[in-house]
TrEMBL record:
Residues 140-235 form the YceM-like C-terminal domain. Residues 1-121 form the Gfo/Idh/MocA-like oxidoreductase N-terminal domain. This is Gfo/Idh/MocA family protein. Gene3D superfamilies: Dihydrodipicolinate Reductase, domain 2 (3.30.360.10), NAD(P)-binding Rossmann-like Domain (3.40.50.720). InterPro entries: Gfo/Idh/MocA-like_OxRdtase_N (IPR000683), Gfo/Idh/MocA_oxidoreduct (IPR051317), NAD(P)-bd_dom_sf (IPR036291), YceM-like_C (IPR048477).
Length: 302
């Protein structure tokens, strides 16, 4: 199948192309507006000139069976709209867009055209996190922290905190009845944000501190006197009396550990089978992120 990859930045080169470039059934086509990057990446994958494209029109002319969008978020609406209008099943890095109205338009267009639209929430496929969905989940706590990176609220929440929001939504065991947001903003920059989701019998807390002194990601789910902890997506610790530690195997690729390989294969399998994937659930995560943005900017109205 002919698969396009649009945008050849860090995430594409580190996470997605190492998977796509090894699939024998995939004829990979690359597109970026930067010639030096296009040729360097394509050379590394041993792609012929006919699979290197400087603009989207040339890529679409290949008759794609699927496409991955790893371009900057600001241009997602333009690129994804073109792909969906051409009937190409599309996988796009989170977020769909910075503005909720743009995300809604893309999801509605995909439904109108009956074309797959998938959003790259890879943590749903990460083995450590997927296994947590089988654990008692009365209390869920997720931290995703950084060093020295306070940022404008909308950008930080939609580009990074969205992973925390989506993981909590994925793991909560029932309907969310209450949403609470707390944050610290100084000089227009978001230092930290805390999201609490609650429902019948469960509470979920999502935390991001951009001045934490540590780059880390820790997920804990607990209930019925047991706890499971996943550290940096690589180490799983089960607590029931004595802790039991399971670490990523030495030969397990990072893309598999982080769920990227599984997400790619699930999307391509659906495209190959003609199964249409809906982005409605992903849109619900964007809607919740918009609620967080508004609460951070106007705490009195939260």
């Amino acid at each position: 199948m002919k698969v396009g990859c649009i945008g050849l930045g860090d995430i594409a080169q580190k996470a997605y192309l190492p998977v796509l470039g090894t699939l024998p059934e995939v004829e990979l086509h690359l597109q970026t507006r930067t010639p030096a990057t296009l040729n360097r990446v394509a050379d590394g994958l041993h792609l012929p000139p006919g699979q290197r494209h400087a603009d989207l029109d040339a890529l679409l002319a290949q008759g794609l069976d699927a496409a991955f969008v790893h371009a900057p978020t600001a241009v997602h609406p333009e690129i994804v709209t073109r792909l969906l209008e051409a009937g190409v099943p599309t996988y796009v890095d989170k977020p769909l867009a910075y503005e909720l109205a743009d995300s809604e338009r893309m999801v509605e267009l995909a439904e109108q055209r009956n074309v797959s639209l998938a959003v790259g929430f890879n943590r749903r496929y990460a083995p450590g996190y997927a296994q947590c969905a089988e654990h008692p989940r009365e209390l869920i706590v997720m931290q995703k922290n950084r060093v020295g990176l306070p940022e404008e609220p909308r950008t930080m929440i939609l580009d990074d905190f969205i992973h925390v929001v989506d993981t909590l939504r994925f793991l909560v065991p029932g309907q969310i009845d209450d949403v609470t947001v707390r944050a610290r903003v100084r000089d227009g920059l978001l230092h930290h944000v805390v999201l609490q989701l609650a429902g019948d019998g469960f509470t979920a807390l999502g935390v991001m501190n951009r001045l934490s002194g540590s780059s880390e990601e820790i997920l804990e789910v607990s209930g019925q006197d047991t706890k499971r902890q996943v550290v940096n997506l690589a180490e799983t610790i089960d607590h029931k009396g004595q802790p039991t530690v399971r670490r990523r195997g030495d030969w397990v690729p990072v893309a598999r550990q982080r769920g990227i390989e599984q997400a790619v294969l699930a999307f391509l399998d659906a495209a190959h089978a003609g199964k249409v994937l809906s982005a409605r659930d992903a849109l619900a995560t964007h809607e919740l992120c918009e609620r967080v943005v508004r609460a951070v900017r106007n705490p009195a109205a939260a």
